[in-house]
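2024-03-11 09:14:02 DEBUG pipeline.ingest accepted 1 chain
2024-03-11 09:14:02 DEBUG pipeline.ingest length=158
2024-03-11 09:14:03 DEBUG pipeline.predict start
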Amino acid sequence: MTNREQVARAMAYFEGCDDVALLHQLIEEIAPRAKKMVGTLLARGSEEAIPPPADLRAARQAAPLDEALKTLRATNDFSLFQVLARSIGQRIESMEIAASAEFPAGARVIVPAKPAYPRSGADVAGSVEETGTQLRVLLDNGETWEGPPSLAKLERPA
């Protein structure tokens, strides 16, 4: 199987993945690699030295999780790396928008003190101010919390 075929299969996995925590973890993992790759390309020339994303669509047959992760971590061609990163990012975005639909402005929610994956910190309560790919919550202590809607839970009445 060629690198392009492996990447297309990995893309299919990521585009269908419902594990939002894993996807957020992968974005955190690959961001430094992307930055390093761009730095290396810029050291060789100007911005024109940075290739565009590969013209590649997801395969019909998705890779299993372990193969998709192996492909992501082994891909060093920046054009192919970009399409993998983009497929993960777009999947996160669509999942967060869907999650935000559960939280209209004014809804009472419980969120973790730290607005990042993995979920950590004490739970804090507040009211939703704004929804979208990020949720903005006015906490009961007067502070503002902003983070992924997928971290929020509706507050259950006592």
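2024-03-11 09:14:41 DEBUG pipeline.report Strands lie at 108-114, 120-130, 135-139, 144-147, 153-154.
2024-03-11 09:14:41 DEBUG pipeline.predict end
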